[in-house]
Specification:
265 residues; 83% helix; 2 domains; 11 helices; single chain; mainly alpha; Four Helix Bundle (Hemerythrin (Met), subunit A)
Length: 265
């Protein structure tokens, strides 16, 4: 029974069915934000939401039945359990905010779709490298904010009057949001301020942020290489098992021939 359940859970059609349920559930939760749709089809949306939740619970229970002690060892199983547990929590009184968190069920696509799992695994693998880049970016922001506060605090106090304000303004500049108007406002009294802003944008946007992309791409390459190596190991093990079985069959055939030869004589 366990092997049959395991085969059903691993079957491609069942995986596609779960993906379809997740997408339909996400769509119904989105439609619940439209008052006119809720007024006309509120009961239907609620029924679809409950059916989807029952399917997720049944799938999770089947996984627990199949994997048993191995179930909590898989981080994706823990992730699915947390998502389903949030959906099962009572959404009344002080926990009414949990009703809005039902949309988190859409995140189950991360654990169901293999390509999304690889992307998330690559991002987690890139975290150690990204932490160093975050530290570098924070240092650059802090140094630039101190300079901007001292240089342009009196010229544009709303943007550079204090250190926290300067940090927020430079973070906004780093993202490219309205940085031209910020620079022009300062350049009315400091014509050479364009040098500061140009260097800051070049360092933060074109250097540090591109380092993030490089680290993530490198992690994705490592994840792909690890997955390919795992597939090669599985293929090699399968090939070796087949060769061992062929060798055993040849030995059995040779033994049968040896037994039959004297009888014929």
């Amino acid at each position: 029974m366990r092997e049959r359940t395991r085969a059903v859970l691993a079957h491609r059609r069942f995986q596609r069915f779960i993906v379809a349920v997740i997408l339909i559930n996400a769509a119904t939760l989105g439609l619940e934000t439209v008052p006119s749709v809720v007024a006309g089809y509120g009961d239907l949306l609620t029924a679809v939401d409950h059916v989807a939740l029952y399917i997720f619970v049944a799938e999770l229970a089947a996984k627990v039945y199949v994997e048993r002690a191995d179930f909590p060892r898989d981080p994706w199983n823990i992730f699915d359990t947390v998502i389903v547990a949030i959906a099962l929590a009572p959404a009344t009184g002080g926990l009414s905010v949990l009703r809005s968190l039902r949309i988190l069920r859409a995140l189950r696509l991360l654990s169901v779709v293999p390509s999304l799992r690889r992307v998330v695994s690559a991002l987690l693998r890139a975290m150690p490298g990204m932490s160093s880049i975050v530290l570098l970016l924070s240092l650059v922001l802090y140094v630039a904010a101190v300079l901007a506060t001292k240089l342009y605090g009196n010229t544009a106090p709303e943007r550079f009057g204090t250190l926290p304000t300067s940090l927020f303004t430079l973070f906004q500049t780093m993202t490219g949001d309205d940085w031209g108007n910020i620079a022009r406002e300062v350049m009315t009294r400091h014509p050479t301020a364009w040098i500061f802003f140009t260097i800051f944008i070049l360092v933060c946007t074109f250097v540090v942020l591109n380092l993030f992309m490089a680290v993530v791409v490198s992690a994705m390459d490592e994840e792909s290489a690890a997955e390919l190596a795992e597939l090669e190991d599985v293929s090699a093990a399968s090939t070796q098992r087949i060769l061992d079985e062929l060798t055993a069959l040849r030995q059995e055939v040779a033994e049968l021939r040896g037994r039959l030869t004297p009888d014929r004589g």
